[in-house]
């Protein structure tokens, strides 16, 4: 009889999660660790990152935290080298860190545009640039990039974010084509509205009542609720695991049916 651990085969794997201190990244790091992976959380929020690691360890998991701004080439290069030195491999990379500014092109200051693109799109390129060679050397790996429903269909007052996430979708396909021969799978998870600090902050940015904003965000989809961070983490676990061994270059939409 097969058991879940054997099917997933993530136990003992080294898994890097960017934006691991909060929301979807944190839920994914916790889930991977609960199946025996060593979770390495990267984030700019050190206090939250360290406390997330302590929480995972308390549950019996293995984890560590590195401060890394994914929009910084120097940070990405240093952290990839440090993890390689400490663990000798990186099996799973979840490029999850992202930020949103709820503004139209007219409202966006150039620095907002640059910040959203630098974190949400360039960050995927930068960390992958330094981690793909490690995966090539060891004979393979699984990379999951965080897209968004708005990277597929657009959305209101989030021009830079929609552009960044559409870029992540096609960057995923390009990476899957370039690195498939090295046995590196690259996929994109595309969450719908998920109850995290990022979503709640959107209410603030739009000067909307938070409770009303969350109810409105949950509506208009067949499964009439917001996603939970765990809903998205489950999909990432599938893409990270051997269960998706012949899946690459794909976009897995996890949104309660919100595409309609
Ligand atoms: P979150 O705000 O809860 O967590 C994001 C984490 O990223 C935070 O810990 C933050 O400190 C970190 N971060 C921000 N800038 C960083 C940087 N430069 N370098 C490293 N870390 C950085 O957000 P979340 O909702 O969990 O979002 C995770 C991903 O999911 C994002 O890419 C987001 O765009 C995407 N997403 C979220 C939703 C949603 O509704 N929550 C929907 C679609 C896509």
Automatic annotation (TrEMBL):
<protein>
    <submittedName>
        <fullName>Short-chain dehydrogenase</fullName>
    </submittedName>
</protein>
<dbReference type="InterPro" id="IPR002347">
    <property type="entry name" value="SDR_fam"/>
</dbReference>
<dbReference type="GO" id="GO:0006633">
    <property type="term" value="P:fatty acid biosynthetic process"/>
</dbReference>
<dbReference type="InterPro" id="IPR036291">
    <property type="entry name" value="NAD(P)-bd_dom_sf"/>
</dbReference>
<dbReference type="InterPro" id="IPR057326">
    <property type="entry name" value="KR_dom"/>
</dbReference>
<feature type="domain" description="Ketoreductase">
    <location>
        <begin position="13"/>
        <end position="183"/>
    </location>
</feature>
<dbReference type="Pfam" id="PF13561">
    <property type="entry name" value="adh_short_C2"/>
</dbReference>
<keyword id="KW-0560">Oxidoreductase</keyword>
<comment type="similarity">
    <text>Belongs to the short-chain dehydrogenases/reductases (SDR) family.</text>
</comment>
<dbReference type="GO" id="GO:0016616">
    <property type="term" value="F:oxidoreductase activity, acting on the CH-OH group of donors, NAD or NADP as acceptor"/>
</dbReference>
<dbReference type="InterPro" id="IPR020904">
    <property type="entry name" value="Sc_DH/Rdtase_CS"/>
</dbReference>
<dbReference type="GO" id="GO:0048038">
    <property type="term" value="F:quinone binding"/>
</dbReference>
<dbReference type="GO" id="GO:0008206">
    <property type="term" value="P:bile acid metabolic process"/>
</dbReference>
């Amino acid at each position: 009889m097969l058991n879940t651990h054997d099917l997933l085969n993530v136990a003992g794997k080294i898994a890097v999660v960017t934006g691991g201190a909060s929301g979807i990244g944190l839920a994914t790091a916790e889930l991977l660790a609960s199946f025996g992976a060593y979770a390495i959380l990267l984030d700019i929020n050190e206090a939250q990152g360290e406390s997330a690691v302590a929480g995972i360890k308390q549950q019996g998991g293995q984890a560590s935290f590195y401060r890394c701004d994914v929009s910084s080439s120097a940070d990405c290069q240093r952290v990839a080298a440090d993890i390689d030195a400490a663990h000798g491999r990186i099996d799973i990379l979840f490029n999850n860190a992202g930020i949103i500014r709820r503004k139209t092109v007219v409202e966006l200051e150039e620095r907002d545009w640059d910040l959203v693109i630098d974190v949400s799109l360039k960050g995927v390129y930068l960390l992958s640039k330094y981690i793909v060679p490690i995966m090539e050397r060891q004979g393979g790996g699984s990379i999951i990039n965080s897209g968004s429903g708005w990277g597929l269909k657009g959305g209101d007052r989030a021009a830079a974010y929609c552009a960044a996430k559409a870029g992540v979708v096609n960057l995923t396909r390009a990476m899957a084509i370039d690195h498939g021969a090295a046995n590196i799978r690259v996929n994109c998870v595309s969450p719908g509205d998920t109850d995290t600090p990022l979503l709640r902050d959107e209410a603030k940015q739009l000067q909307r009542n938070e409770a009303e904003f969350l109810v409105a965000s949950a509506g208009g989809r067949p499964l009439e609720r917001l996603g939970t961070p765990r809903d998205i983490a489950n999909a990432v676990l599938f893409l990270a695991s051997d269960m998706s061994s012949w899946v690459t270059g794909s976009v897995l939409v996890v949104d309660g049916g919100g595409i309609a």
